[in-house]
Specification:
With 267 residues, this protein is an alpha/beta fold. The protein has one domain: 3-Layer(aba) Sandwich (Rossmann fold). Helix content is 29%, strand content 27%. It contains nine helices and 13 strands. Strands 3, 4, 5, 6, 9, 10, 11, 12 and 13 form a nine-stranded mixed β-sheet that branches. β7, α6 and β8 form a beta-alpha-beta unit. α2 crosses α3 and α7 packs parallel to α8. The radius of gyration is 18 Å and the shape is globular.
Length: 267
């Protein structure tokens, strides 16, 4: 991209950003809305590698499509549906898929403009049928609505949760996953109680990995995976530490996850 093109895009209130060391690119809003980063890359890393053709993945609340695209780039067998309610963000996702830099894999992704919280026939009519997906990934809004301070409506919708949000999103994941399919999500640690309650009998074999900035510091995120209809026990895994002491550089394991060179395998 030329400097002139970059400047024009910034004036238009958007950027094109590179992920996985240039393996895919994303059109994102600038100065408003949600901009994808490491959370989306760690979420994508929860989906295991597979060679099974036609593996179906749904990215709920996909935004511009970062997590779903990261899955598709790493797993050539994956067919990914990007589900996004906000029309403007869904448009960013479609434009991202239309970029020439993404031509090699864009035909394996589609964008569905729909509300993740829909239920029953309304959900099916919107394009989310029951028992068809092998994996569902989600990065739900995780800020308490009472803490919302931004006048940016697009950002507020992406970041601020409403009552029962986790239950609604996890209910939808349970409905659209096939039996034995995997739910993967990233959230703040304070949401763990609501998440586990929402998983209830829908998901078992829950594995929770705390994400720490540095060894000895408190977790800033949790990674959670669960299997539909499993009755396996909960596992609290060793923390994933992002940086070494006194450093802002990612440790090798995290850098590999962040750039699509590895995935965070279930135990």
């Amino acid at each position: 991209m030329t400097a002139e093109t970059t400047m024009d895009r910034r004036k238009a209130g958007e950027t094109i950003d590179s992920f996985h060391r240039g393996r895919f690119h994303l059109v994102q809003p600038l100065g408003r809305g949600h901009r994808a980063g490491m959370d989306a890359m760690l979420l994508a890393a929860l989906v295991p590698d597979t060679n099974r053709a036609g593996t179906k993945v749904a990215d709920l609340g996909a935004g511009a499509g970062a997590a779903g695209m990261a899955v598709a780039v790493r797993i050539p067998a994956a067919q990914v549906l990007l589900v996004e309610r906000a029309p403007e963000m869904a448009t960013f996702a479609r434009r991202s898929l239309a970029l020439p830099q993404n031509a090699a894999f864009a035909d394996r992704l589609a964008v569905l403009e729909a509300d993740v919280a829909l239920t029953g026939r309304a959900r099916v009519a919107a394009g989310l049928p029951s028992d068809v997906f092998d994996h569902v990934v989600m990065n739900p809004p995780f800020n308490n609505g009472a803490d919302r301070r931004t006048p940016d409506a697009l950002k507020a919708e992406a970041h601020a949760m409403s009552d029962g949000l986790f239950d609604a999103w996890i209910r939808t994941a349970g409905a659209i996953l096939r039996p034995g399919g995997q739910l993967s999500l990233i959230a703040r640690p304070e949401s763990i109680g609501e998440i586990m309650a929402a998983c209830g009998r829908r998901f078992g074999g829950l594995e929770i990995t705390p994400v720490l900035p540095r060894a000895g510091e408190n977790a800033v995120r949790i990674l959670l995976t669960g299997i539909k209809q499993s009755r396996a026990r909960l596992a609290l895994r060793a923390p994933l530490v992002m940086h070494g002491e006194g450093s802002h550089a990612f440790l090798q394991e995290v850098d590999d996850l962040n750039n699509g060179r590895a995935f965070h395998a279930r135990r």
